[in-house]
Amino acid sequence: MLYFQSFTLDALALILRPQSLTDERRARMRARQIFQWVYQKGAVSWDEMTDLSKDLRSWLKENVAFYNINKKESKQSIDGTHKFLWELEDHKTIESVIIPANKEERITACISTQVGCAMGCKFCLTGVQGLSRNLKTYEIIAQVYELRKIAQVTNIVFMGMGEPLHNLENLITACQILLDPYSFGFSKRKVTVSTSGIVPAIEKLGKQISVSLAVSLNAVTDEKRSKIMPVNKKWNLALLLKACKDYSKCNRRITFEYVLLKDFNDSLEDAARLVKLVRGIPCKINLIPMNEHTGSVYKRPTEVAVRAFQKYLLDRHMTATVRISKGVEILAACGQLSSVSQKTCVK
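Below the sequence we write its predicted structure tokens.
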């Protein structure tokens, strides 16, 4: 059985064409109708699609199923952040989050791409549990589909559990579905892929689809970055920044995420190196004070240190924001997502 949420519009049209449809044009028209029924009208069965022939609906019922992700638990923070624990077919679990903006009419959905994560970043709870498996396209899309029932999601960030670029094929297919005007219709500016720095995959992503890119930088020397992010031992800062510069030429400016760790990377000397490091790359810096959890030895810096770091960047005409961490008390903030099914997360 095939799951509908696995298909881009083109792929759906391809499998529809032999089913009593005489040409490619009609198949694409039917595919567009089906996309609109499911993603825009919320249809949950083929019988609802009354403008399709009975024969086609019958074939679809026998061959294509709707994937329904199982909500196992949800928690809501006092700031409006809403975290969800989903159970998959194999009983593994993932988390995703709805994050409301403070003043703007923006609601962000933070989406997972893997069960766990193999990257082992020392400040991230997801990395403590290791990687179980990649999510399929339909498991990625199902998160968005369900969250859109709860809130008018305006932005998608692949910053949940996992390294999105380790699951590149399914990620790209999911992005194609998200951007399709006959499905969710998100703007490419409203879909952001975050990576720890998988250089070859950054290059492939830029060639195959246009979305926003966020890169977890987090240190300004190879020695420090390798200490907290093992990926740097394979693709160092020089290789990573070259890939970012190339990506920015064909897409839009890069967001560099910089998790501030107390007495590790939060000095003004670090800020000075950061300015030199990203010079020549159209970018903005998103400063993220460490969200503490039991899986890390690192601590959150003082507010004074955070603001001094930001001021140093601003004074040098860089765009630098400080992320306001939301959902901290329910472990829904950046670096705090995990699977309760993974024992390593609940020691």
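Confidence is low (pLDDT under 50) at residues 326-347.
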